[in-house]
Amino acid sequence: MSPSPVRWGLLGAGAIAGRFARDLQHVPGAAVAAIYARRPEQARQLAGAHSALAVESPAALFAAGVDAVYIATLPDTHHAFARAALAAGLPVLCEKPVTRSLAELDDLLGLAQARNLLFMEAMKTPFLPVYRALRSELEGQQAGQGGVRPIFFVQAGNASPHTPPDHPSWSAALAGGALMAIGVYQAFLAVDWLGPASEVQALSQASTTDPTGVDAFTLVQSRHARGLSQLYAGLELASPGTATLCGPRGFATIHRPWWNPSRATITPLSGPPLDLSYPVLGDGLHYETTHFCDLLRAGRRESPIVTPAHSRAVMQMLDRTRAAIDLRFPGEPHPPVRPLG
Fold it and tell me: Topology of 6-124+285-306 in CATH?
């Protein structure tokens, strides 16, 4: 039998929304039904390409018979849009970083729980085939039998020198900066393998050409429940864009681009390396979307992969890092900080 249809409402019609809409062709039973964007012409163009309805307000989108809402706007609007969608009784898949702060995220999680609705951060990496294969291989290894595990140290980063000066990542008003735009992936990886952070140290550098009030490069070192991590994110430098997971009997490398990978290598101290290669179909967004649709059809209210606790631990790391580098967004007296753990 064909799966029950999931009609999506899209808040936002930029590049990521376009990629999401295109990738729905790989999600059984899913389609775009309605789109709202701050620029009406942009919404009309994307809607026309997918036989969807362009609407004039978020409220009109919520009333357009959609089954779920995908939030593809910039981070400064995530909390308000997600809150409005949940209040309207609709499940939400929200782009990363899911909010600007842990306080905003906790507000959404509380509302989702109160309304008995599915809410999930759209973090695609853990759903990609090579990442799933890597986790399966490492978790299947037995201690003392030549396996790499347990993972104790995570090193990862990404920096791109091609961020144009008018890109939203340069705007504090839009909750930009290297940490929020790129570092969220690195924080995800550290939390995924090592658990929540208990201590965070950070250094940052502003733009060397045009100071904008946000970080152009941030370096983070943190202590976690199960080890240590060293992470970086940048908007003006070039970098290899790889990630390494280190254990006492070897290491695993997630090759560039590690956050959207198709290759990984497990290198034990004894024995030959194991190469994993799984090409990404489409833009890779359909893997997480399929997972969300399956949860929705099953009546589930939380993802077992991108759990609320996982998203909280990531946002907690970002809050602590922003406090350490004194990165403030408009309306904040100071980055909110709560005890870690």
Answer: Rossmann fold (3.40.50)
